[in-house]
Amino acid sequence: MNAELNRRVAALVQDVTGGAVTAGQALTGGSLRALGLDSLGALRLIDAIDLEFGVEIDLGSGSDTLEAITRMVEDRS
User: Fold this and answer.
1) Are 12 and 49 in contact (CB under 8 A)?
2) CA dihedral sign, ordered 47, 43, 35, 17
3) pTM score of the predicted model
4) Which domains occur in the chain, in start order?
């Protein structure tokens, strides 16, 4: 997995949550929803990823970890 991409997506998580979920927390792994990413934050993250990388992702079940999101971005780039 691309470490730089992983860090960039983590920074986007922090941006869209207004710091409620920090990049450091996102990088530790686990569910972003459990860390505090709510439905509005998820929609903002989808939009931010589309703007940043030009790819559309789906944050459905099982895809709310930083690793899963980064993998989707890699696969669709």
Assistant:
1) yes
2) positive
3) 0.92
4) 3-76 (1.10.1200)
